[in-house]
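Side project, low priority. Logging it here so it doesn't get lost.
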Amino acid sequence: MANVSALRSPTVTTPRSDAPSPRPKFDTDLLKAYIKMLLSSTFQNNSWPEAKDREKVKAWIREIGERVKERMIEIQPRGYKYVILTQINENLGQGGRADMVCHWEDGDVIAQEMYSNDSLICICIALAI
């Protein structure tokens, strides 16, 4: 069996400037509260659709992504690029795990929220980079 540590890239420490970022600060707390409210209001009275109505899932994903993007632009209209990832799965009692590795600039931020009920699980991740 191969030595796992031999497969990893060497750790390189990139020096960072002590100068403050020229970008305005992005308020992730405000965005997280919005995403939490949005997911709750979208799914509190909804359940995983039958096979013939699966287009609902695509519509939910599109709507959540657009609304989160609009809110991010309201919070900070300049200085960032926005990426929103939304995933909705049927809740069958399964477990899950996710991880992300990034090289961030000092001002880059992430906000993530999860909503689940007896029939579905929704994860929304928003990045301001």
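Brief comment: The mean pLDDT is 87.
Revisit when time allows.
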